[in-house]
């Protein structure tokens, strides 16, 4: 095992281990849906069993249905596959010093097993009668450009369809112009190439920020939250060392390209487009600042990856895990210290404060439809014509289930299920 591979395994073990410890001690969790439940446990309103059951219910489906399926076929893990698991491991282990130690060990073992297991799966795919790994690579194809549409959708949701269409049109034009005129010669044979996806996303984000910034006010909602929940803000600040260590570890893991915050940056990294992945990561993080800060103030429990800006910092420091760890450590400390001030500052720009909710909804809708289209392309490559039938049928039938899978999970699961089914059919000579 060479040194770079060893570093990968050590980092992923530390991310899984420390993340599980944070969840075990109620310092931080990754799932935004679990964070509001944590105070109920910390204040004795629910017991540990109820907390563990809730953690499992809100996270397991995303791990199995989204995080791991999207990570298969790549050595770059989607954060959901490990950080959501850390939530579960941390809440399922006892709330004492032995339970904390156990959470750290189990989380570390899970992280190593996840990274090794995905590599093993890739090798195993090559031995199958029908190797569908190549087809699975099409899953993320539509995401790269479709992602650029989410700001227009967010603008339409927040400011109306007209402004959404203006943003969409500007995004479309930016892509065309960057494609046609995005190569510049600066002399001595040196050329600078503007990435069309990155430029169109940048233009879309600028429009989204411009429209949101036009809504001004002197509200005091966040300021009031800070005053009412000052003890919970203090609790987060008291745990700054643990949060900073986690921030450093995630940043270092991001810098060596073993973990990405979401599927779009992951797909860009697979294609070697690191700067574009950093821009996409930063764009995503902007939408999560109001949510992370507001829920942190109310609950006294921070986000395991903070505002997720640390993922972008890691990408900008690619290949320098030690420097990345220090930068992530410092940045997470800054986030924690700025928690109250930033939340109060957002009151002056309620449009920016409210923008986060629209961004998150738009991101989810965009990724879900892009993964569905990608799954259709992947399945059709595995089994021409039959593949479209399979994906459409699975998508529609999922809607009829009493407990349907989240939309983002349907496409990847349908593609993997078809690949397995085709191998079984090959064995009995039906395919």
Automatic annotation (TrEMBL):
Domain of life: Bacteria
Keywords, alphabetical: Membrane, Transmembrane, Transmembrane helix
Record protein name field: Transport system permease protein
Lineage of the species this protein comes from: Bacteria, Bacillati, Bacillota, Bacilli, Lactobacillales
One Pfam family hit: YhfT
InterPro entries per the UniProt record, alphabetical: Uncharacterised_YhfT (IPR019733)
Transmembrane region(s): 6-30, 51-70, 102-125, 131-153, 165-186, 192-213, 240-261, 281-302, 309-334, 367-397, 409-428
């Amino acid at each position: 095992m060479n040194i770079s591979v060893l570093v990968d395994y050590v980092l992923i073990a530390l991310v899984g281990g420390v993340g599980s410890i944070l969840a075990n001690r109620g310092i931080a969790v990754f799932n935004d849906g679990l964070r509001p439940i944590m105070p109920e446990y910390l204040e004795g309103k629910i017991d540990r069993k109820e907390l563990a059951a809730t953690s499992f219910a809100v996270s397991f489906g995303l791990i199995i249905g989204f995080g791991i399926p999207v990570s298969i076929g790549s050595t770059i893990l989607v954060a959901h596959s490990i950080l959501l698991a850390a939530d579960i491991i941390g809440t399922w282990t006892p709330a004492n010093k032995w339970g904390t130690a156990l959470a750290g060990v189990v989380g570390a073992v899970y992280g190593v097993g996840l990274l090794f297991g995905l590599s093993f799966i890739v090798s195993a795919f090559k031995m199958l009668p029908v190797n569908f790994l190549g087809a699975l690579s099409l899953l993320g194809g539509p995401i790269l450009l479709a992602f650029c549409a989410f700001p227009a959708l967010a603008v339409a949701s927040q400011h109306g369809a007209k402004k959404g269409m203006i943003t969409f049109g500007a995004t479309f034009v930016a892509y065309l112009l960057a494609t046609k005129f995005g190569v510049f010669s600066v002399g001595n044979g040196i050329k600078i190439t503007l990435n069309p996806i990155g430029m169109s996303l940048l233009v879309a984000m600028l429009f989204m920020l411009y429209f949101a910034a036009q809504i001004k006010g002197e509200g005091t909602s966040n300021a009031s939250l800070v005053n009412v929940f000052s003890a919970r803000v203090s609790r987060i600040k008291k745990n700054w060392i643990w949060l900073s260590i986690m921030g450093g570890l995630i940043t270092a893991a991001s810098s060596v390209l073993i973990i990405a915050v979401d599927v779009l940056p992951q797909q860009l990294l697979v294609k070697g487009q690191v700067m574009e992945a950093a821009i996409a990561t930063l764009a995503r993080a902007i939408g999560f600042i109001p949510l992370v800060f507001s829920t942190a103030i109310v609950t006294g429990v921070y986000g395991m990856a903070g505002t997720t800006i640390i993922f972008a910092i890691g990408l900008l420091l690619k290949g320098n895990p030690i420097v990345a760890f220090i930068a992530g450590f410092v940045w997470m400390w800054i986030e924690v210290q700025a928690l109250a001030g930033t939340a109060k500052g957002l009151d002056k720009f309620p449009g920016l404060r409210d923008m986060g909710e629209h961004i998150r909804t738009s991101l989810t809708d965009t990724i879900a439809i892009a993964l569905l289209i990608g799954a259709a392309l992947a399945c059709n490559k595995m089994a021409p014509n039959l593949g479209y039938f399979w994906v459409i049928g699975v998508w529609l039938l999922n809607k009829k289930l009493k407990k349907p899978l989240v939309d983002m999970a349907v496409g990847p699961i349908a593609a993997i299920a078809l690949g397995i089914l085709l191998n079984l059919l090959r064995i009995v000579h039906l395919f």
